[in-house]
Specification:
- The chain is mainly alpha-helical.
- Helix content is 73%, strand content 0%.
- α3 crosses α4 and α6 runs antiparallel to α7.
- The longest helix is centred in the middle third of the chain and has 44 residues.
Amino acid sequence: MTSPVPDIPSATAAPCAPASPAAMFWAFSLLALQGFGGVMAVIQREMVERRRWMMQEEFLQDWAAAQVFPGPNVVNLCIMFGERHFGLRGALAAIAGMLLAPTVLVLALGSLYIQWADHPAVAGALRGMGAVAAGLVLGTGIKLSAGLVGHPLALWFGWLLAAAAFAMMVWLQWPLWWVLPVVGGAGCWLTWRKLAA
């Protein structure tokens, strides 16, 4: 007996792939060092546009899955990507590349920050970096919304769900573990209803 929900076509394969686990380790290390304030804004540009390791649709699907799993989203994405290409070795290389250099850098900068935290220039630099990180995330969100054109729900409805999540977190001060099931669950349920129809 077949399911009433039609199969969603999978994204076409990306034209390029990492040559080895070592190449993936260095690529993710460089990528992680660019991610001040979060790597999400950088990882889409690097993996989809620059290196062409993933298609945009494939990135959106994997990013959605990475947000559902516990742990940092970008680390989940790297583990899935590395395992897909080189199995366990690939997953370990991807996660080591994503975490090793930033860990060393954070430990070094943390010890410096303890000494210079009260300096006005340091506080101003951190505020400026926060504004840049917010702009990068917003720009990436707008860019990723282009991949929702073929989605069963209308694009305006996707923006409405995003605005609802923003309002719940910023104005209502709901924690993410409440917002994700409410808004994400509503989006999943409505998409399922649309596909089933």
